[in-house]
Design brief:
Largest sheet: 2 strands, antiparallel
Radius of gyration: 19 Å
Strand content: under 5%
Structural class: mainly alpha
Helix content: 55-70%
Amino acid sequence: MAKLSKEERKKYYERQKALRAKGNEEKWIKHYNELKAYVAENHQFPNKHKKGFVYLLNWVKYTRKKIKAGTLTEERKVLFEELEASRSVYIRGNKKE
């Protein structure tokens, strides 16, 4: 296999970075849509006791962490916060706020 020139390597890494970014965008939207469907059905975010939805709970935690760190894009932040506001809030048992 021939060695790539410095310019060819640079182009290769830029293409790889663009592909990863596209994949991450698709993954974020997929998780967002799954969470949106879950909230529409259950009126709350998943919790650790619901089997089969722990991955969504982990995604919610990760997204909140990115918001606090200021590394989530403004568009994603707005979408997530709108979804968070649309859920019912349960306090002390199952009393809705």
